[in-house]
Recover the amino acids of this structure.
């Protein structure tokens, strides 16, 4: 990480917004959030629980403008972190209470679910400015992503997962969407246009599997793009060819062997 992006939390701000996702992870998030609120109060901070995204946007903007907001805590998984990032200004300090299934961003940032430790970080810790990517589909507003995005097979699995989602998600929840996508997906060829950081020229590639990384994090710690750095001002693209499930298994084996 680029150390020049490090900073400090506002010294006089005492309010902390905790955004709880009721559906994050495999178990209830109520207990850990209540413990975090107590741990923050013990450190003379003022915690406020929010479960509505619109309320988050309004409250965070108002308190930040008044110099009262110390941090916003995304209490949930990576989806909750993404939701919060899309609802607050870029200069609002944000941290994570990892209560989701994978918690990839929290693991990358070395944040645990220990509420006393997180309260200490919020009270005494430092900040780091991270990059974010943006995705726009059609005329819809752009959405930020903090970790990575997958195009093609990956995206279809996630679409099917959320289509059938009922409450909390576990690793087992992915089984049926992955299986049905393997049977039915057509693996269309995709065209990716990007600007090379070396030549600053626009280039295009075609592929059947496309991943765009901000951090090196991926499910099950697969090392698809281990050199991605969220403080270098650029996104990393990894693309594979081969429009079939068997090609996918081959690419997976190559990734595990770090030969891709």
């Amino acid at each position: 990480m680029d150390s020049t992006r490090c900073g400090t939390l506002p010294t006089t701000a005492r309010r902390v917004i905790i955004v709880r996702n009721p559906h994050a992870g495999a178990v209830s998030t109520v207990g850990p959030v209540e413990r975090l609120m107590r741990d923050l109060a013990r450190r003379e901070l003022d915690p406020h629980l929010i479960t509505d995204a619109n309320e988050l946007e309004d409250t965070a903007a108002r308190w930040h403008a008044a110099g009262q907001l110390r941090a916003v805590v995304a209490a949930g998984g990576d989806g909750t972190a993404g939701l919060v990032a899309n609802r607050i200004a870029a200069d609002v300090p944000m941290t994570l209470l990892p209560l989701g299934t994978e918690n990839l961003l929290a693991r990358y940032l070395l944040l645990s679910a220990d509420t006393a430790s997180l309260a200490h970080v919020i009270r005494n810790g430092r900040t780091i400015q991270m990059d974010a990517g943006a995705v726009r589909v059609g005329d819809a507003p752009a959405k930020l992503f903090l970790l990575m995005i997958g195009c093609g097979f990956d995206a279809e699995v996630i679409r099917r997962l959320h289509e059938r989602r009922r409450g909390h998600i576990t690793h087992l929840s992915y089984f049926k969407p992955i299986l049905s996508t393997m049977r039915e997906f057509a693996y269309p060829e995709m065209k990716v246009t990007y600007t090379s950081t070396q030549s600053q020229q626009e280039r295009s590639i075609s592929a059947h599997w496309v991943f765009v990384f901000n951090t090196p994090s991926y499910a099950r710690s697969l090392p698809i793009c281990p050199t991605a750095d969220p403080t270098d001002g650029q996104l990393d693209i990894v693309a594979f060819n081969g429009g079939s499930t068997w090609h996918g298994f081959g690419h997976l084996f190559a990734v595990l062997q770090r030969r891709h």
Q: What stands out?
A: The two ends are 24 Å apart (CA to CA). Residues 30-42 form the longest helix (13 residues). The longest strand covers residues 69-76. The chain has a mean pLDDT of 92.
